[in-house]
Amino acid sequence: MFNFEVIQNNSPRWNEIVKQAKVFDFHHTSYFHQIDTDFDTQLLYFYSDNEFIALPVVIRPIEGTKYVDLTSVYGYSGPLSYFNNDVSKNELIHFFKTSFIDYCTQNNIISVFSRLHPLISEQKDILGGLGEILDLNKTVSIDLTIDQVEQRQAYRKSLKSELNQLRRKEIIVESVSTSHDIDAFIAIYYETMDRVSASPNYYFSKKYFYDFLNNDDFQARLLVAKNNDKVIAGAIFTHTDKIMQYHLAGTTEEYIKDTPMKLILDEARLVGNESSAESLHLGGGVGGSDDDSLFKFKSAFSKNFKQFSVWKYIVNTEVYDQLSKDKEHSNFFPLYRS
Q1: Of 142, 179, 259, 315, which one has the fewest beta carbons inside 10 Å?
Q2: Is the pTM of the predicted complex or chain greater than 0.70?
Q3: Average of per-residue pLDDT values in the chain
Q4: CA 305 to centroid of chain Cα atoms
Q5: What is the residue extent of each domain of the chain?
């Protein structure tokens, strides 16, 4: 017997369900859905006994209409699942698709967009046949299931030399939790956002950082690089069972040429080896190729590349076209929000 429930964000069941998935990340948690958006969020839960598909969504009203659309939080989201075997998996996926379409129709949902998670391969099986899955750039992941020596052997040759040079400069990496070190990191993060001309939504409040590092839904750790006891760079890493994720980071202008972030990522790998995590996911760049400096920086640590994709689904083509009729054609989705 198959069932479908809508779980609201204030329900403790949200995280109970998420943590039963075969693989999940902090982007799927109730806490992140509370802090990443001002819109209502729901966890759509399709299940039979201990098997399930759970899809977290953000619900956005379409201004001036009775309609809404669905999107995902920023980062790597998409459906979570747990299956016993291929037969029950296929049956539950079929139930998910038919029930999801009914849910969208009954709730005046016009379109659906979700960023998918590069480390959760079953998402494409679940969503296949509903709209379009578009492959974008590659991301970089360090395999934490192999030993430390083998991990380091995968480093770009120049990276090994650069790490040794950083250590000779007496730059050290520490896991920190004092307000002094956190405030220093926040200042460096803001400085970094200024340097790259980041959009305003990247300028999180100080409270955001403190709450994030002390939330109850997942582990968050701040690693900083210091020189003569001065914080010169830092990064926040999250940990949810099998996935360790590289999140927010920054380096002070004075030390930007030294790239101490390389030492931080090397230390994060060692921290991950001591945990239950199977992957340290560094994410991607802008274009996901060696022409992209951010991707080139990350790919020096690993050639274990993963595919980042997005899901686009037009539920009601007639209304979608009406809403988009005055928009110039582009790849932006949904077009009526361009």
Answers
A1: 179
A2: yes
A3: 96
A4: 15
A5: 3-138+308-337, 146-277
